[in-house]
UniProtKB/TrEMBL annotation:
Membrane topology label: Multi-pass membrane protein
Source species of the chain: Microbacterium oleivorans
Residue intervals of the Major facilitator superfamily (MFS) profile domain: 152-404
Signal sequence range: none
Keyword DNA repair included in the entry's annotation: no
Protein name: Permease of the major facilitator superfamily protein
A molecular function (GO) term: transmembrane transporter activity
Length: 404
């Protein structure tokens, strides 16, 4: 499916989806940056925070799983608008349950709405990003993910300011929620209406669309792409949760150098996401994924085994470079066939996000028995498996980028 779009219409669609990716990152960092304030306001312990995170993660996975059904029923245009409203309502409930009417159940309800909205939005916005790739005939999905990273940086910065200025959680989350709803309404205007069916091969009835939405789970390629995304999700999620601790404690660098190492990782990942598209267009998805997987494995091993802190930082940078494109390129590969893009992106993303959400806690449990740095060898092994599975990202015959 290729839309008839003017150059200006395509450009505004692209800007709208850039903004949606940024808003998603902004929302997640808004919640994450206020976790200490929420913990203090509700007087809860880390175990309770863990249960809240589990509830949000479960809702996110449900959202990922049903996203293809929502796309089939409503289309990505209306679906993205509604999910941005849902996650914004979730932010409101989180704020209300923290400050206005302190209530753990209200915060949990808010996190469930927030997780569901963001999980569903993640698939829908990636489907639209992949559709824009079809139109521009260039690999730009990594750039969309870079805008998501930009949103997390903005959200974290606002969160640091709000916490430092002792601004309560509710006014903070309320302002961000309203801003996201306004942005959603504006973006809706510039996202074209698209059908996810082909007039030649897919019926338009609801039952037929439901069957199409579930069909990806019967395709072996989905699971192999899931391995690609699982390994890279472990690499990213594991770094976010454990890299700083590994530097500060196991490598005895202290808190400041731990935070600095995580910053190096994040910058390396974001830079490659911004500039990596032309490399993919030049060398192809499969070759790029294999080189990056090898880079990540080398970086992780160097991080674990380095005898001094400068080499640890080099390892963190290589780790970030290697982990940068696996997830967006997996999404792009899953969306090769526009008629089935939502179903395949939903299925592959679900596998990846289960790893992203559940992987770090599992690593934490293992690390209590064998130590943190030895545990990171598991991430290196999964990234290596991701590299071996990268052949599944080869573009499907008759779709965009078949020269790759």
């Amino acid at each position: 499916m290729t839309l008839e779009l003017t150059a200006s219409r395509l450009w505004t669609w692209r800007l709208a989806v850039f903004a949606i990716f940024t808003a998603s990152g902004l929302s997640i960092a808004t919640w994450a940056s206020r976790v200490p304030s929420i913990k203090a306001a509700l007087d809860i312990d880390n175990a309770t925070i863990g249960l809240l995170l589990l509830g949000m993660g479960a809702a996110s996975i449900v959202g990922l799983s049903v996203a293809s059904l929502i796309a089939a029923r409503l289309g990505t245009r209306l679906g993205m608008l509604l999910m941005m409203v849902v996650l914004s309502v979730g932010l409101f409930f989180i704020g209300i349950g923290t400050d206005v009417t302190p209530s753990l159940p209200l915060v949990l309800i808010g996190l469930a709405l927030f997780g569901f909205g963001n999980g569903t939005l993640d698939v829908l916005m990636n489907v639209d990003g992949a559709a824009i790739e079809v139109e521009v005939k260039k690999t730009i999905l990594p750039l969309f993910h870079a805008f998501f990273s930009l949103g997390t940086v903005i959200g974290a910065g606002i969160g640091v300011f709000a916490a430092g200025a002792k601004i309560a959680v509710f006014p903070h989350t309320a302002v961000i929620a309203i801003a996201i709803v306004v942005l959603a309404v504006v973006a809706y205007r510039y996202v074209p209406r698209r059908e996810f069916t082909s007039p030649d091969d897919v019926p338009t009835g609801w039952r037929a669309r439901l069957s199409t939405a579930l069909s990806a789970w019967r395709e072996p390629r989905t699971y192999v792409l899931g391995i690609v995304m699982l390994g890279m999700a472990f690499a990213e999620g594991g770094a976010n949760d454990w890299l700083a601790l590994g530097v500060s404690e196991d490598h005895e660098g202290g808190f400041a150098l731990g935070a600095a190492a995580l910053t190096v990782f994040s910058i390396a990942m974001t830079v490659v996401r911004v500039f990596g598209g032309p490399l993919v267009d030049r060398f192809g998805r499969v070759a790029t994924l294999r080189v990056l997987a090898a880079t990540a494995v080398v970086g992780i091993l160097l991080f674990i085994l380095a005898p001094n802190l400068p080499l640890v930082f080099v390892g963190a940078a290589l780790w970030g470079i290697g982990a940068s494109l696996g997830f967006p390129l997996g999404m792009s590969a899953a969306a090769d066939d526009p008629a089935r893009a939502a179903a395949r992106v939903s299925a592959a993303a679900t596998i990846g996000y289960v790893a992203f959400l559940c992987g770090p806690p599992v690593l934490g449990l293992i690390s209590t028995h064998i130590g943190l740095l030895p545990t990171l060898f598991i991430i290196a092994a999964l990234v290596a498996a991701s590299g071996f599975a990268s052949g599944a990202a080869k573009p499907l015959p008759g779709t965009r980028g078949t020269s790759h």
